[in-house]
Amino acid sequence: MLDLFNLSSWKHAWLGEGKTALWCIGAALVWQAIGYYMVMHVASIDGISQEIYEAASIDGATGVQKFFRITIPLLRRSIGTTYILSLSGTINLSFTLSNVMTGGGPNGASSVLLQYMYTQGMRNANFGYAMAIAMFTLLLAIVLALISRKLSAEKE
Q1: What is the number of other CB atoms lying within 10 angstroms of the CB of residue 134?
Q2: For range 126-147, the mean pLDDT
Q3: Residues ≥6 apart with Cβ < 8 Å to 75
Q4: What pTM did the predictor assign?
Q5: Contact by Cβ (8 Å): 53, 66
Q6: DSSP conformation letters of the chain
Q7: Angle at alpha carbon of residue 74, lines to 70 and 75, rounded to 5°
Q8: How far is it, in rounded angstroms, from Cα 42 to Cα 35?
Q9: Quick one: which of 21, 26, 67, 127 has the most CB atoms within 10 Å?
């Protein structure tokens, strides 16, 4: 297919090379989730009253000013919620995609934290270490969610 578009230089084993395998998994994560989060943001934008934009237009605001001073501040909660959901989804789905697409290879280059936990627990029968990795992952997710919540909190 790449030959048809004169892109022969792009032909290589994308999932078989260490430096590109993780990027391919990241691209698949973004691709599978972008529609879901787009729907959430479009619904939030739809909920913003048109009178606010009309008032800003009457006051002489440009489109860029409306976006940064009206739209983004009113979407702060929605952005925070989607960030937390995408964070938890990335932590969970990265294992699934990495396991299915590359199995952690080549040479562990595309292995993610939960895949390492799975390897330690299920393949090496090192259950205590796997549980420690799981607890670390849980604490990391909680800390990142709290930071996100703090950053997206409304100012009084």
Answers
A1: 16
A2: 90
A3: 41, 44, 45
A4: 0.69
A5: yes
A6: -TTTTT-GGG-S-GGGSHHHHHHHHHHHHHHHHHHHHHHHHHHHHHTS-HHHHHHHHHTT--HHHHIIIIIHHHTHHHHHHHHHHHHHHHHHHHHHHHHHHTTT-STTTT--HHHHHHIIIIIS--HHHHHHHHHHHHHHHHHHHHHHHHHHSPP-
A7: 120
A8: 10
A9: 21
Kindly state the tokens that stand for 20: 């590109």
Lookup: tokens for 143: 């800390």
Residue 97 has a CB neighbour count (10 Å cut-off) of 21
Structure tokens at 30: 């973004």
Q: CA 112 to CA 99: how far, in whole Å?
A: 9
pLDDT digits (tens, 9 = 90+) for 111-122: 888 888 988 999
Please calculate the CA angle 76-142-73 and round it to the nearest 5 degrees: 5
Distance of alpha carbon 136 from its chain centroid, rounded?
19
Q: Which two tokens stand for residue 59?
A: 């006051």
